[in-house]
Amino acid sequence: MIKIREVTYTQETRETVLRDIAEVKRVWLQSYKTTYSEPFSQSNLDSRTLGKYIGNLKQSFTQENLGNDQYLFVAELETGKMVGYAYCGRNIYPDIEFDSVLYELYLLKEYQGHKIGSELFNRSKSRLFEQGYQTMFLWCVEEIPSCKFYDKKLGERVKIKPRNGNDPPEIGFVWRLK
Predict the structure, then answer these.
(1) How far apart (Å, rounded) are the C-alpha atoms in residues 152 and 134?
(2) What's the predicted TM-score (pTM) here?
(3) Which residue, among 85, 88, 168, 77, has the nearest Cα to 135 in the 3D structure?
(4) In terms of Cα–Cα distance, which of 46, 57, 52 is closest to 19?
(5) What pLDDT digit, counting tens, does each position of 129-168 carry?
(6) Measured between alpha carbons, how far is 8 from 56 in angstroms, rounded to an integer?
(7) Which residues of 24-37 are buried (b: 16+ CB within 10 A; e: fewer)?
(8) Could you give the angle at which helices 50-60 and 14-35 cross, rounded to 10 degrees?
(9) Residue 60 class from Cβ within 10 Å (0-12 exposed, 13-18 middle, 19+ buried)?
């Protein structure tokens, strides 16, 4: 049984949030390396480390942001093991005209195809709508299975962003929230 939980930041939950950040990035690293093993070089994958990204997340998941204009949902087994997460919120990209963004949705490979990603996606969309956002945007690397997942979620392809060298382009998807 999988449980989806929203991570909220208060003084009482500060330690839990810091542990959650480490788990989120563990899930990110494992998922990243399996998701992007086809379109990216091994050296690109090997350059990804936990320490570098945990610091960035700690800055994002502060008392001022988390639950205010940034939202984190985690998927956990009954044992408490985190198997996926979604991170969404107010758009901080100046070149994107949509008001909210699904920044990350990652799921461990062995838990894909069991509707957990759909639940994380839907919880993100619902939360953003509840907060008054009208649109939700995300970038997805074109040559990975996730693009098909987002196509099935009826996302409108609105942008293409070339990447460095031989890396495949990213596709920008948008959903109208209602």
Answers:
(1) 20
(2) 0.81
(3) 88
(4) 57
(5) 999 999 999 998 887 778 888 889 988 999 888 767 677 7
(6) 18
(7) bbebbebbbeebbe
(8) 130
(9) middle
